[in-house]
Each structure stands twice: as C-alpha cells, then as structure tokens.
Write a structure and sequence with these properties.
By secondary structure, this protein is mainly alpha-helical. The chain has one domain. Helix content is about 70%, strand content about 5%. It has a two-stranded antiparallel ribbon with strand order 1-2. The mean pLDDT is about 80.
Length: about 260
C-alpha cells in the first residue's frame, strides 16, 4: 500500500512549500472561517475565494487533477448529509413529488442552503488538500504543537497516520489468507468469517499498541515529540499571511457594501 497518499507532493520546492507550517495552518483556518461566514448570496466573495485558491495552487505547483480528484472524493459524503435539507426546510415550495405513498416538497430556501453548503464544503476541502499536499506531516504536527494544540491530540494524530497503514496491510494479508482458503459458502458463514476477522484485527491492534507503548516508555518517552528541524518564521510568511488575511477579510466585508 502507498504510504504517502496525504502528503504525496510535500517534497516539492515552491514558495508555498517553503512557508512555515504555522503560517499555512493559521491561513487555512482563517480561509475556512471566512468561507463559513459568507452569506448564501455572496457570489463575489465565493469568486474571490476561488481566485485565492487558484493562486495558491499555482504557487504550490501541485497538479490540478490531483487536487480536484481528491476533493471529489469528499463531496459525496457532504451531499449524503445535506441532500435532505430541501425537503425539510420551510419556505416557498419549488416543486412537489409523489414517492409511492408519500408526497414530498422541495423549497427554494432549502435549495439555496444546499447549494451554499456544497460550495462552502468544496472550497474548504480544496484549502485543506492544498495544506496537506504542501506540508510534510511531521512538520504539520509540529506546527500544531507550536500553536498550543493539546499535546495528546497531536500524538493521537501522529500515531493514527503512522499505524493506519500497518492496519490496512494487516487487513490485506488477512483477506488474502481468507481468499486462498476458497472463501465461500452460505451468507451466514461469510458474515461469521468477516466478524471473526474484525475481532482478530481488533485484538492484534490492541496488542500492537501495548507493545509500542512499552517500547516508547523504555526509551524515555515523556509525551513530547522532538524533531531535528526547527520551525522558523520568515518574512515570506508574514507577507503571505498578511496578503491572504487582507483578501479574505475584504471578501467578507464586500457583502456589506
């Protein structure tokens, strides 16, 4: 299994890659906050945010197809959650439909909210993809720790990213062993076999976690992550942060004019 699906292009050399992880984290958080606060009819603001992402993408030299493909993977989950809003939102009815024994109605306000949620989610996901694609995960976690994120959360994220691949490889080996034994039979037998695999995987993950924890404590682990590379705030970080902050603030204020 490929172990670099999140930060696949983080080793490239560009203006965005050379920025301090803390600058990119704060800028991304500010961008997502501005997108979330934009009113439903803020088309000028959405156009400005799209232009910011386009410039961000161009400066980072990350392939456009990669970013769009990754963003489209997340959107179906957003649609699955928000698809029912037009049917339950009160307001002027845009259309009524008969579904077997039920009659459902779609409202204009519900459609507007659904459209706004999809736009916000897509812009936010694009910014997060650009963040993870231009920052190595150890540097990203180090930046989170420097921004005073709870240390236990940083460690959980670090171990999750490090060992999720180990668990996936373990599942693939168990699946290969199951298939090599001519996996078949009735439906109930198949469900029972899959349930046994899940239980075995849970026990193996728990035991592996205990062994890893014991090994870390034996080596003097005190809950703090240490890296050889020190984070350094440079003038380019100040220029980037001020420019992006000014643009997103202006994008929100333009709706009030």
């Amino acid at each position: 299994m490929r172990h670099s699906f999140l930060d696949q292009y983080s080793d490239r050399d560009s203006l965005i890659h050379r920025l301090d992880p803390r600058t990119k984290l704060v800028s991304t958080f500010l961008f997502i906050t501005a997108v979330a606060l934009t009113p439903p009819d803020g088309w000028v603001s959405y156009a400005l945010y799209s232009a910011i992402l386009a410039i961000w993408l161009m400066l980072s030299r990350v392939p456009l197809g990669y970013v769009l493909k990754r963003s489209l993977v997340v959107l179906p989950f957003v649609v699955l959650i928000a698809i029912f809003i037009p049917f339950f939102r009160e307001g002027e009815i845009a259309g009524s439909y008969n579904l077997w024994l039920w009659q459902v109605s779609v409202t204009h306000s519900g459609i507007i909210i659904l459209r706004n949620i999809l736009i916000r989610a897509w812009l936010s996901v694009l910014s997060l993809i650009l963040l993870t694609s231009t920052t190595k995960l150890p540097d990203l976690l180090r930046g989170l720790e420097q921004l005073h994120m709870p240390r236990v959360m940083v460690m959980v994220l670090s171990f999750m990213y490090r060992y999720i691949f180990v668990l996936v490889d373990e599942v693939m080996r168990m699946k290969q062993a199951r298939d090599s034994r001519n996996f078949g039979g009735r439906r109930w037998w198949q469900i029972r076999t899959v349930g046994n695999m899940i239980g075995t995987l849970f026990i193996r993950a728990y035991e592996r976690g205990e062994r890893v924890y014991a090994a870390m404590m034996a080596r003097g682990f005190d809950g703090q992550s240490r890296t050889l590379k020190r984070l350094e705030f440079k003038p380019a970080d100040a220029y980037f942060g001020l420019s992006l902050g000014t643009l997103v603030i202006w994008g929100n204020l333009i709706n009030l004019i």
